[in-house]
Write the structure tokens for this entry.
Amino acid sequence: MPNTIVVVGAGVSGLTSALLLSKSKTNTITVVAKHMPGDCDIEYASPFAGANVLPMASDENSRWERRTWPELKRLTEQVPEAGIHFQKNRVFRRDKDVQVASCPMDHVFDRDPWYKSLLPDYRELSQDELPAGYDSGCEFTSVCINTATYLQWLLGQCLRNGVVVKRAVLADIAEAKALSHTGQPAAVVVNTTGLGSLKLGGVRDATMTPGRGQTVLVSNECHPMFVTSGTDDGDTEVLYAMQRAAGGGTILGGTYDMGKWESNPDPNVAVRIMKRAVEACPDLAGGKGIEGLGIIRHGVGLRPCRKDGVRIERERMDDGTWIVHNYGHAGWGYQGSYGCAERVVELVREMRREKGEHVDDEPKLFSWDS
Ligand SMILES: Cc1cc2nc3c(=O)[nH]c(=O)nc-3n(C[C@H](O)[C@H](O)[C@H](O)COP(=O)(O)OP(=O)(O)OC[C@H]3O[C@@H](n4cnc5c(N)ncnc54)[C@H](O)[C@@H]3O)c2cc1C
């Protein structure tokens, strides 16, 4: 009998979960969501991400990022239509920020970080490679994802594997059980509603909060990408720049403002974002200051932050249906996407084994995996 699954949510977490689940021919998958790739809405975080790989977890919590990197690397090397390219990434540290260590991207700024053995070409920068005002830094090879292209590519991969995708707005997660395109009740519901899990009935996770991120998308080129450990414009303002693949423009960031829901970009913040970027990297605007930036658009996205970190676990509803949760990825949803979706598949397989189903000869999730 097919294993009927309904995935709620079509951001990077939902689509990656659906894609890995769809590798098993015994799973029949429906994705239902209020927002789909192509939509631009404050309740939908995924289009607003940079998105690059800048490991943020501590070593002990690094599983999601460690398991994702090889697949993003493979896609970058072998699947150009996914819209990902390699970029050097430079991390600039100021001792005064690193000592405080309250920044949400903390572990990126560790000296001797765990990720130096994961990401290629890691090296510490010499003093003459640092912009004025920074005490140390490092460089490594990373990727930058054109989120508009990549989300459509993920959706296409799901459709190719037989996943059926529908629009629906759920008031309660229990409604998902009846939404499979097969007409059969779902055996498993996967909850990938991001910040939606704050208000979604049956979940209502009060520990979810937005980490507001304001950005400016410009047409200027930026090599390498860079991020700094802090700014002099207050605790909620950060500084990073990354050029998206395939003509996606360069994202200048930004802010990390916890608990703020405002969906409109603040023009004063936008000016500060651009000033900081051209100060740190004058070449970005051809030495012309912010006048030399070609603004494509301003953006605001809400990172789905959860007090105790991501929630990936299973839970049984009153009627016996299983929910697998996969939400609360804050600012690392892309760079942890395959690792988290792999765990979703493991949890679904565990449940099927408990029901006495044979799942041991299912296909490998990743072609690079031994
Ligand atoms: C400015 C900014 C920069 C970022 N940069 C990076 C980066 O460089 N690298 C990186 O890895 N990450 C980055 N992130 C984080 C990343 O964007 C998020 O972690 C990720 O997009 C979360 O994806 P998600 O699928 O969990 O949630 P979302 O993308 O928010 O998707 C949620 C889905 O659930 C649906 N949904 C919610 N509630 C309901 C309901 N009641 N009924 C039906 N459907 C519902 C929505 O419609 C949507 O389809 C950044 C985020 C921001 C805002």
The chain has two domains: 3-46+148-207+308-354, 87-142+208-306. Residues 214 and 266 are 8 Å apart (CA to CA). The radius of gyration is 21 Å.
